[in-house]
Structure formats: structure tokens, C-alpha cells
């Protein structure tokens, strides 16, 4: 684990190696319950949904159902608006 500076995503984790390449993740050092959540951008949510569909073989409905229950999405995004976003991708 390396701290790269101040901010929400300043902690770099080395998760594993895959085919001799490091698998890295950026995260924050605090618990998500300790900070105020921001509404995720449409582009970010569309990328997450597309990744779930591609990597897990989920349907767009599966991705929408999963995302709508997450902190930061629930309460910030209406399911119909999220559905429109996923369909537009």
C-alpha cells in the first residue's frame, strides 16, 4: 500500500500479479460510512454498467439492479434514469 497524496483516491494497493503484470487499485484510507457521498456522474455509471455486462456476462437489467442498491447510487439516481443511461451505452 502506498499513499500518493491527499484526496479521495490517494491510496494505491497492489492486489496481485497477473501474467507478471501488477494489478493495482486506487482507494481511500477511510470507511465509506465516514464521508459524505457524491452523486456518481452518468459517464462513470455507464462505464461501471458496461464493465459488469462485459466481464460477468450480466444483462443490462442485472447491472441496473446491482447498481441501484449501492450507496452513492441509491438515493441519487432514479432506477428509470439509470436504465436510460445503461440503454444509451
Structure report:
With 89 residues, this protein is an alpha+beta fold. It folds into two domains: 1-29, no CATH class; 42-88. The protein has helices spanning 42-56, 60-68, 79-88, and strands at 2-3, 11-18, 21-27. It has a three-stranded antiparallel β-sheet with strand order 1-2-3, with no helix packed on it. A hairpin with a 2-residue loop joins strand 2 and strand 3.
Structure summary:
With 89 residues, the chain is an alpha+beta fold. The chain is 38% helix and 19% strand.
- Which of globular, elongated, flat, extended, rod-shaped describes the shape? flat
Q: Summarize the amount of helix as a percent range.
A: 25-40%
| Biggest sheet character | 3 strands, antiparallel
**N-to-C terminal Cα separation, in Å?**
34 Å
Order of helices and strands: EEEHHH
Strand percent estimate: 15-25%
Q: Oligomer, anyone?
A: single chain
User: How many discrete domains?
Assistant: 2
Secondary-structure-based class equals alpha+beta
**Based on DSSP secondary structure assignment, what is the total number of beta strands?**
3
Low-pLDDT parts are none
Radius of gyration using CA atoms only: 15 Å
The whole-number mean of residue pLDDT values reads: 89
- Count of helices? 3
Query: How do the strands line up in the largest sheet?
Result: 1-2-3
Topology:
Elements: E1 2-3, E2 11-18, E3 21-27, H1 42-56, H2 60-68, H3 79-88
Antiparallel strand pairs: 1-2, 2-3
Helix pairs in contact: 1-2, 2-3
Descriptive terms for the model:
2 domains, 3-stranded antiparallel sheet, 89 residues, 3 helices, flat
Amino acid at each position: 500500500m502506498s499513499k500518493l497524496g491527499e484526496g479521495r483516491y490517494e491510496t494505491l494497493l497492489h492486489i496481485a500479479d497477473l501474467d507478471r503484470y501488477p494489478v493495482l487499485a486506487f482507494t481511500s484510507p477511510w470507511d465509506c460510512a465516514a464521508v459524505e457521498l457524491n452523486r456518481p456522474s452518468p459517464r462513470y455509471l455507464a462505464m461501471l454498467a458496461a464493465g459488469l455486462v462485459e466481464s460477468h456476462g450480466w444483462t443490462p437489467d442485472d447491472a441496473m439492479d446491482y447498481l441501484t442498491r449501492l450507496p452513492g447510487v441509491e438515493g441519487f439516481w432514479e432506477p428509470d434514469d439509470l436504465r436510460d443511461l445503461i440503454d444509451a451505452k
